[in-house]
Amino acid sequence: MFYGSIIARFFGVMIVLIIRFFYSVLTGKKIKTFADIWKGPVYDDLADNASYEMKFILIGVIFIFIACWFLMKIPL
């Protein structure tokens, strides 16, 4: 994996962790850890594992783009 995808996946997992934390608090379910979300379930098919990782990479890239867009809007 490239370093950019690892960084994007990190931000994607953080966003999902925050959303799942609030959802777990509201519903009273068990809170998943960062490591549980990062590792994910064990798949027999390689395509399922790749799509699980790609989901977090895309969420992370979207977050990074939105954060950069907001930072560019700040007047200096």
Describe this structure in words.
This protein is 76% helix and 0% strand. Helix 1 (3-27) packs across helix 3 (46-72). The protein is mainly alpha-helical and 76 residues long.
Structure in a nutshell:
The protein is mainly α. It contains three helices and no strands.
Structural key phrases:
76 residues, single chain, 0% strand, 3 helices, mainly alpha, flat
Give a topology summary.
Blueprint (H helix, E strand, L loop, with lengths): L2 H25 L6 H6 L6 H27 L4
Helix pairs in contact: 1-3
Low-confidence stretches: none
- Roughly how many Å is the radius of gyration? 15 Å
Count the beta strands. Answer: 0
How far apart are the termini?
Answer: 36 Å
Number of domains: 1
Order of helices and strands: HHH
